[in-house]
Design brief:
8-stranded mixed sheet, 15% strand, 285 residues, 10 helices, alpha/beta
């Protein structure tokens, strides 16, 4: 089995619609794909409706968190999307995205970059607006060559000249909410230092004690040495180890199915979850 547990669609900051994403996942030879848009489950219904036969969909979301001033992401799998407490927190995070993006546009204008809110909103479309959309606007204007080049201290990285903080959930509260909604929690790309500051790996032990299920080890932003170290940490703490592409379509260079999760780990995730169940494809439209 080939299992990719971290992808994004146009419901947040990917460039493929949910329907396009699941069709591409099947064409790529994946058996299981998780749709984990940022702080939203809005793409799930479309993905389910289009799910090809032979492909299983894991519903999820990537929650925006912050620990001691450092941004981090928590992958939540197979939770009840209508559970009130987690739904309210996702809406709080999502509602803060528009004023934050507008503030980043204003800062860029102060730096002499002629980006407009209308441009960013056009790029975001129906998705939850975020830094990648602002970064794409910088690419359109020729300010930077790629989206990744916008995530530097000069521009949009944490603490960068045009960065604006947003509401982010305390990860311990996120764990409580995910568990309360019947979900499984995996710390996304915990050592992706090229994205900015990362939480100390000692914090993983505290998160594990609070209910963290696993850590995403096999990821494009982790080199071989980092992966080996994280595997050791996971083994010591009894955490699941996942691998995934963090696919965003054409917005980033990651390839769908580039990294995958062991079938036994996937099986354990499905055994632990009780908020929702994987959806087998039946030959969608």
């Amino acid at each position: 089995m080939r299992i990719d547990l971290h992808t994004h669609s146009t419901a947040s900051d990917g460039t493929d619609t949910p329907a396009q994403l699941v069709r591409k996942a099947a064409a790529t030879g994946l058996d299981v794909v998780a749709l984990t848009d940022h702080d939203t489950t809005r793409g799930h219904a479309e993905a389910v409706a289009a799910l090809p036969e032979g492909l299983t969909l894991v519903t999820g979301a990537e929650l925006s968190c912050r620990l001691d001033g450092i941004s981090m992401h928590m992958l939540a799998y197979l939770f009840d999307p209508e559970e009130p407490a987690l739904l309210a927190e996702r809406e709080l995070v999502r509602d803060d995205r528009v004023p934050r993006a507008r503030a980043m546009v204003a800062r860029l204008n102060e730096l002499g970059v002629p980006v407009t809110w209308e441009q960013v909103a056009r790029i975001a479309g129906e998705g939850s607006v975020g830094r990648p959309h602002v970064a794409s606007a910088l690419v359109e204007l020729g300010v930077v060559p790629t989206v990744n080049d916008a995530f530097t201290p000069q521009w949009l990285a944490d603490g960068g000249r045009a960065h604006v903080a947003k509401h982010e959930t305390d990860p311990f509260e996120a764990l409580r909410l995910i568990k309360g909604a019947g979900g499984v929690a995996v710390f996304a790309h915990p050592a992706a230092a090229k994205r900015g500051r990362t939480v100390p790996e000692t914090a993983i032990a505290d998160l594990a004690a609070a209910g963290l299920d696993g850590i995403e080890v096999d990821h494009m932003d982790h080199d071989e040495q980092t992966r080996a170290r994280l595997r050791g940490t996971a083994k010591e703490l009894g955490l699941l180890v996942t691998g995934s592409s963090d696919y965003h379509g054409s917005r980033k260079t990651c390839v769908l199915g580039e990294y995958t999760t062991d079938p036994e780990v996937y099986g354990e995730i499905t055994r632990r979850a009780f908020g929702a169940f994987p959806v087998p494809g039946a030959g969608g439209a």
